[in-house]
Specification:
heterodimer; A: alpha+beta; six-stranded mixed sheet; 9 helices; 20 strands; B: three-stranded antiparallel sheet; 4 helices; globular
């Protein structure tokens, strides 16, 4: 990639000043780690509060004549129950392709912000932003409008002390339930706060105007419970939490059922369908799948990475690892991948081919670390 | 101590080379969580990939800068791979190789040249 074309987020200079190692990621310079390193950042987030910049992700809104019309239009693209979202409520879902594969995963919120009431506020992955925005906009029926927010920054405050940190700036954030959002004044700035994240911890995502991003970031870091965390630890945290990374654990060939995401599809949508690829999803819900995403625990200390072949005990290939590495909280190697369904039961012995050697492992249930979302 | 372009270091005593990775290399790798070392007795050739160092983030190959026979590996690293981060150019050594061709050492950089190389 032409590095001169890489974009800088509004917090770029602050990351550099903090000593971050900046790397190209999805068209942006992003901090992969700060001087303390991935291991320390990961553990800090599990025990205190980690602050991540995720401004590279895509934020957009869809507005129609009324919420029902807008929600029905979104349901043409995703398998989630969008219609039943109460104002401020948020849901995880997937943009589907006609083959029943996943074009991206995303967060959909029934907006309750002033001036945007009844709209859908959507956050998509950085690597898929261009495709997603075009795809959503092109598929909207007449009378609905699409808006991308290129001047909004996004950060995530995650960990058991996140609530206390935000409550020190505005106690009202404590009232937010998991997967709900609202607009709050934080340190004199207007911030769209949602109680969500992608680390398995309780936490918040904070959407704020670019011009306020540095002030909010510094204000949060003034709290001794908060330390900055880079994309390296973001990846190890979400892997321990058993959460999918687009392009690795889910892609245009995997269905939500194979990926174990059926929990994100409400009964009405399973029965009625009406989203791209719904026939495959319905067929798989009834008849099962031939491959499934599972957790994998290698024996020993050697991590098995993305792309590692999975074999049964006789040496036959039965699958592949889609995310793998070292879990700092687990204190050992962990992985996720797809295997033939017969091998998906927790406890099933597996072999991983690492550097040409068969390494013993077993299928385990996900997540590796119990989620601590505030229900 | 001499250095290779692949960021390994070598010291030699009595025809046996001790090999590890440089301070610069460990700082680039980040937290080391596993080191895969060659078997004792293995014959290795200069610039051959003989070991792997795994950080939280990624696996990186380690190339042996000299030819010979592996006569020892650092067993400490299996229980404490972070030793590579704490003491890369001393206690965090990887292996010892009985040299079969000492002239290969002349292809390596001294510390000043290596520091300039990683500049």
């Amino acid at each position: 990639m032409d590095e001169t074309a890489l974009r800088r987020t509004p917090l770029y200079d602050l990351h550099v000043a903090l000593g971050a190692k900046m790397v190209p990621f999805a068209g942006y310079y992003m901090p992969v780690q700060y001087p303390t390193g991935i291991m320390a950042e990961h553990k800090w987030c599990r025990e205190n509060a980690g602050l991540f910049e995720v401004s590279h992700m895509g934020q957009c809104s869809i507005t129609g004549p009324d919420f029902q019309t807008t929600a029905r239009a979104m349901e043409m693209l995703v398998p989630a129950d969008v219609l039943s979202l109460a104002p401020g409520q948020q849901r995880y879902s997937q943009l589907m392709n006609v083959q029943g594969g996943i074009s991206d995963d995303l967060m959909i919120t029934h907006s309750n912000w002033e001036g945007l009431e009844g709209s859908l506020y959507v956050v998509v992955n950085a690597s898929r932003k261009g495709f997603d925005f075009d795809h959503i906009e092109e598929n909207l029926p007449p009378g609905l409008s699409f808006k991308r927010y290129d001047s909004l920054a996004l950060m995530a405050l995650q960990g058991p002390k996140a609530e206390g940190v935000l409550a020190a700036l505005n106690p009202a954030v404590k009232q937010l339930a998991f997967m709900s959002s609202g607009r709050f004044m934080l340190g004199g700035m207007e911030v769209h706060v949602s109680r969500s994240g992608y680390t398995g911890e309780d936490g918040f995502e904070l959407s704020v105007e670019d011009k306020d991003a540095a002030t909010l970031w510094n204000r949060l870091l003034e709290n001794a419970d908060v330390k900055p965390v880079g994309l390296g630890a973001r990846d190890s945290l979400r892997l321990e939490a058993g959460l999918c990374l687009y392009g690795h654990d889910i892609d245009k060939t995997t269905s939500p059922i194979e990926a174990g995401l059926q929990w994100s599809i409400a009964k009405r949508r399973r029965v009625d369908g009406g989203f791209p690829g719904s026939r495959r999803v319905q067929r798989e819900l009834l008849g099962g799948v031939s491959r499934k995403r599972i957790g994998i625990k290698p024996e020993g200390r050697a991590p098995a990475r993305d792309g590692t072949e999975i074999q049964d005990e006789t040496g036959r290939k039965i699958g592949v690892i889609t995310s793998g590495g070292f879990g700092p909280t687990v204190n050992g190697p962990i992985a996720m991948g797809y295997v033939e369904t017969a091998y998906a039961t927790p406890g099933t012995p597996l072999q991983l081919i690492v550097r040409g050697q068969a390494m013993p492992a077993q299928a385990v249930s996900l997540p590796f670390i119990p989620n601590r979302f505030k229900r | 101590m001499k250095f290779s372009k692949d960021h390994e270091w070598v010291t030699v005593e009595g025809g046996v080379a001790t090999i590890g990775i440089s301070e610069h290399a460990q700082s680039q790798l980040g937290d080391v969580v596993f080191v895969d070392l060659p078997k004792i007795g293995r014959q290795v050739k200069a610039n051959e990939n003989v070991a792997t160092v795994e950080s939280v983030k990624a696996a990186s190959d380690v190339y042996v800068p000299v030819s010979g026979e592996v006569v020892a590996v650092n067993e400490e690293l299996s229980g404490d791979p972070a030793l590579v981060n704490r003491a890369p150019e001393s206690d965090g050594w990887f292996m010892k190789v009985k040299l079969s061709n000492e002239s290969e050492l002349s292809a390596l950089m001294d510390k000043a040249a290596y520091d300039k190389f990683v500049g």
